[in-house]
Design brief:
heterodimer; A: 291 residues; mainly alpha; MetI-like fold; two-stranded antiparallel ribbon; 2 strands; disordered N terminus; B: alpha+beta; Rossmann fold; OB fold (Dihydrolipoamide Acetyltransferase, E2P); 2 domains; 6-stranded mixed sheet; 5-stranded antiparallel sheet; 25% helix; elongated; binds adenosine-5'-triphosphate; binds magnesium ion
């Protein structure tokens, strides 16, 4: 009887599911509000403020910043260029990472652990260090250019231009791409591939008809991640572009720190945010189409 | 016993009608031998079971036939063609996996169409054959569903349709029924057997369920530790097991040890048991099927020439519904005898003396060499 009594009214003290959810979500909501939403709203407002000479921000509201984005061919070119370069980098990263991810997915035991550590280890070094590494390798005095020259060819310029930025960023983003691909490879069951083989599919057709479709979620996730990281990356284009490569992130830096035109920097930042939104939209549409 | 020679060798050489042939096929992983020099000859249209305990190499054998695992030695031929080095997509075999392995991103109809598309068959014919195949497994209504929207039994039938629709030369089934509940399993057993007969396709059926093997298959290959123990019809394997392992794995047995005296009699702690097997003198084992044992409580049963008798004491009774199992102590050993239930029987108490008897021809005896 006493047991029954203890269990009789447990619900009176327990919090309801709704209030529990609020309590659990509160910390992250607070952090997000203070660290993300308020600054972004601030930026949004600033993009409608007037830029005063000498770095001041006027109180008056104006559409001038947004108008200059649309009317000034330089900024339009910057946007198109940034998106184009980021898409190219994403594609290169995908092509380089996919075979590695597939191999990693199929390996097992210690070998897999070893390879995973190998893939992740670049993330343990800062992007600055890796960028300088690439500069050492690809600059005019570096081994690659020297070797090409020694073979008697006209040495190409591999550093302090777009080529350098693309090489550097692709390598830096590969670990992210590989991890995202692996996360999306869950549906890839070796038995399913074998089923395709026994039904008469050559290795190539097995890849095209079974492996590729089943890994599309991973591909979409990896591409979203790398596109977003690439379009917002700053250090690598700044260091490896040699001042000749103009991308959104470097321009925001220049406007904010060099020119001290904060409202224009804010406007460009909002534009990047809009591109993120579009990328996210495209991603969810792709996911829906896959399923 | 009469059937105590090597069945494997006999089957692979003697049979000119053999269609699928494995000659000395083996598979080693590192220094572990998963399959050891397997000889097997399967006739056209035959349904053969690979039966054995977990880890004995059934799946490995099946995957070698399908070409999914390379052999470490030996030859695999179908008809006149040597397939040993042919990749899986060139072998024209249908394989139904234990986990079904349906393509999760395709509808049921697309799953079934896959093999036909790989063979570049015209669209119209593909549609027609897919319809037929789905009708055969009674799934025509679910053609547009995705695999995850199907029950286990339905998925299994899709896998079967997908393998059969391409009219493969050989059908390979890897424990296709093990994920189903008992009732569905019974249904699917009949259905697979019917379809197999209807299409007349040569089939290798992997199972560790002896009832499945006995009830469905033309012949049974009993495997153990990567080796063939016996190949024979269900009746052969059940009634004339070649080794003690086969006797105890296929069907239930009671087991008694004794000493053979060389003239057909075996001495078990003073009692003498006769068997048809001409065992050489030495240690021997006797096995009997529990339901072939007659239980006598009166102590009056007449001694007959063709009947073995043992006296013991009732230890325990287990009621299993259809049958009652009497656990009887004979010397140090305990054996089980079965009797069918009648509904209003008086169950004897533990400690009651009892006489067990069974026919000499039901006595399976094995020498120590086996
Ligand atoms: N890739 C592998 N590497 C090493 N050993 C393996 C490998 N695949 C199978 N084996 C071993 O080979 C033996 C036979 O395996 P197999 O899968 O053929 O067994 P099985 O008879 O199908 O068993 P079950 O009834 O459990 O499915 C097992 O002991 C297994 O551990
Ligand atoms: Mg198996």
């Amino acid at each position: 009887m006493s047991v029954a009594a203890t269990f009789a009214s447990p619900s009176s003290k327990a919090p309801s599911t709704a209030s529990l959810a609020v309590m659990l979500l509160l910390p992250i909501a607070l952090v997000n509000a203070v660290g993300f939403i308020i600054p972004v709203l601030n930026l949004a407002r600033m993009s409608f403020n007037e830029a005063l000479p000498g770095g001041g921000i006027g109180e008056a509201l104006t559409l001038a910043n947004w108008q200059s984005l649309v009317s000034d061919g330089f900024y339009l070119g910057l946007v198109v260029n940034s998106i184009g370069v980021s898409l190219l980098i994403t594609l290169i990263t995908l092509v380089l990472s996919y075979p590695i991810a597939l191999y990693l997915h199929r390996s097992s035991g210690r070998w897999r652990t070893f390879l995973t550590v190998l893939v992740i280890s670049p993330l343990l070094t800062s992007a600055v260090v890796r960028t300088y590494g690439w500069i050492a390798i690809l600059s005019d005095q570096g081994p690659v250019v020297q070797t090409i020259a020694a073979l008697g060819f006209t040495p190409p310029r591999l550093m302090f231009n777009l080529t350098g930025v693309i090489v550097g960023l692709s390598e830096i983003l590969m670990p992210y791409m590989i991890l995202a691909l692996l996360a999306g490879f869950g549906r890839l069951d070796p038995r399913v591939e074998e089923a395709a083989r026994t039904l008469g599919a050559t290795p190539f057709r097995t890849f095209a008809r079974v492996i590729l479709p089943l890994t599309l979620p991973g591909i979409a996730l990896g591409c979203l991640l790398c596109f977003v990281l690439s379009i917002s990356s700053f250090i690598t284009p700044k260091l490896m572009g040699g001042g000749r490569v103009f991308l959104l992130a470097t321009e925001i830096y220049d406007q904010a720190i060099v020119t001290l035109n904060w409202p224009l920097a804010a406007t460009l930042s909002m534009l990047v945010l809009i591109i993120f939104g579009a990328a996210l939209g495209a991603y969810s549409r792709v996911l829906r189409a896959i399923d | 016993m009469m059937h105590q020679k090597n069945f494997a060798a006999e089957a692979s050489q003697g049979d000119p009608d053999a269609y699928l042939r494995l000659e000395g096929v083996s598979k080693t992983y590192g220094d572990f031998e998963a399959v050891r020099s397997l000889d097997l000859a399967i006739g056209k249209g035959e349904l053969v079971a690979l039966l054995g305990p977990s880890g004995c190499g059934k799946t490995t054998t099946l995957r070698m036939i399908a070409g999914l695992v390379p052999t470490s030695g030996g030859r695999i031929t179908v008809g006149e063609t040597d397939l040993t080095a042919v990749p899986p997509h060139g072998r024209d075999m249908g394989l139904v996996f234990q986990s079904y392995a349906l393509f999760p991103h395709m509808t049921v109809a697309r799953n079934v169409a896959f093999g036909l598309e790989m063979r570049s068959i015209p669209r119209g014919e593909i549609d027609r054959r897919v319809k037929e195949a789905l009708a055969m497994v009674q799934l025509d209504k679910l053609a547009e569903r995705r695999p995850r929207e199907l029950s286990g039994g339905q998925q299994q039938r899709v896998a079967l349709a997908r393998a059969l629709v391409v009219k493969p030369s050989i059908l390979l089934l890897d424990e296709p029924l093990s994920n189903l509940d008992a009732k569905l399993r019974d249904e699917m057993r009949t259905q697979i057997r019917d379809i197999q007969q209807q299409v007349g396709i040569t089939t290798v059926f992997v199972t560790h369920d002896q009832v499945e093997a006995l009830s469905m298959c033309d012949r049974i290959v009993v495997m153990r530790n990567g080796r063939v123990e016996q190949i024979g019809t269900p009746v052969d394997v059940y009634e004339r097991p070649a080794t003690p392992f086969v006797a105890s794995f296929v069907g239930r047995t009671i087991r008694l040890s004794g000493t053979a005296n060389g003239d057909g009699a075996i001495d078990i702690g003073g009692d003498v048991i006769r068997s048809a097997a001409g065992l050489a003198p030495g240690p021997a084992e006797i096995m009997v099927r529990p339901h072939r044992i007659e239980v006598d409580w009166t102590g009056q049963a007449k001694t007959k020439d063709d009947v073995n008798r043992l006296s013991g004491v009732l230890c325990r009774i287990t009621f299993v519904g259809d049958v009652i199992q009497y656990h009887v102590g004979i010397g140090d050993a305990e054996v089980i005898a079965e009797a069918s239930t009648t509904g209003n029987q008086q169950l004897p108490a533990a400690g009651t003396p009892v006489t067990l008897s069974w026919r000499v021809e039901d006595t399976m005896a094995f020498g120590s060499g086996q």
